[in-house]
Specification:
single chain, 203 residues, alpha+beta, 4-stranded antiparallel β-sheet, two-stranded antiparallel sheet, 6 strands, 12% strand, elongated
Length: 203
C-alpha cells in the first residue's frame, strides 16, 4: 500500500519535519532585530505581570524587603491549589510596595507569556518589515495576532470570576480549567500558521 502524501506530493513525515523547521525559523526572527526583540520582551513581561496579578500572586505589599519560604517547599511546589493549573505558593518575596508569591504558576505563566510575546513580535515584523524577514505580510499579521488576542485572559478565567464575585456553576468552573491548555494550543497553532508564510531563503 503506498504511503499517503500531502497535496504537494510529500509524505506526512516530511511535511511534519518541514513544518517544525519553518516554525523554528520563524520563532527566531524577532531576535534578529532589536526592535522586534524589544517588542517580544515588553509583551512577555507585561503579560506575565498581568497573569500573576490576576492570580493574586503579585499584590501591593506592606513595605520592607525579605524572603519567606514554606517548609518542605520542594514537595509543595507541584501541589495543586484551586484546580489542575493552579498551584500552591511556596515562597513570599517582599519588595517594598510589592509582594510576590512564587509557585509553579510563575513557570506556567512565563511559558504562556513567551508564546504571546513571539506571536505579537511576529505580528510586528509582518506589519513593518515583511519582505526582509521572508514573511507574506498580506495574511501573516492576522494569523500571528489572532491566537494572542484569543488567549489574552484564558489562563485567568476562574480568578476573574472570583474577583468580580460571580457565582459560577461547577460546570463553568470545570470548563475554565481547560482554558490554559487551549491558550497554549492556540498560540502554538499561530506560530505554525505564520511559519507557513516564512521563506527560509529570505531569512
Amino acid at each position: 500500500m503506498p504511503e499517503p502524501t500531502s497535496d504537494d506530493g510529500r509524505g506526512p513525515v516530511a511535511a511534519f519535519r518541514e513544518a517544525l523547521s519553518r516554525t523554528r525559523t520563524s520563532a527566531t526572527l524577532p531576535f534578529h532585530r532589536r526592535d522586534a526583540g524589544l517588542v517580544f520582551v515588553a509583551t512577555s513581561a507585561a503579560y506575565l505581570v498581568l497573569y500573576l496579578y490576576a492570580l493574586g500572586h503579585l499584590a501591593p505589599g506592606i513595605g520592607g524587603f525579605g524572603v519567606t519560604i514554606v517548609d518542605d517547599a520542594a514537595a509543595r511546589f507541584f501541589r495543586p491549589a484551586l484546580g489542575p493549573f493552579s498551584f500552591t505558593p511556596v515562597a513570599s518575596v517582599r519588595l517594598g510596595p510589592v509582594t510576590y508569591l512564587f509557585s509553579f504558576d510563575t513557570v506556567l505563566g512565563a511559558g504562556v507569556a513567551g508564546l504571546v510575546g513571539l506571536n505579537v513580535a511576529l505580528t510586528y515584523l509582518a506589519r513593518t518589515r515583511p519582505a526582509s524577514c521572508g514573511i507574506d505580510g498580506s495574511s501573516a499579521g492576522a494569523l500571528a495576532g489572532l491566537p494572542a488576542l484569543l488567549s489574552g485572559t484564558a489562563c485567568c478565567g476562574p480568578v476573574v470570576l472570583i474577583a468580580v464575585g460571580v457565582q459560577a456553576s461547577g460546570a463553568l468552573l470545570t470548563a475554565f480549567q481547560f482554558l490554559l491548555p487551549a491558550a497554549v494550543v492556540l498560540l502554538l497553532a499561530g506560530l505554525v500558521l505564520v511559519s507557513r508564510h516564512v521563506d527560509p531563503a529570505a531569512t
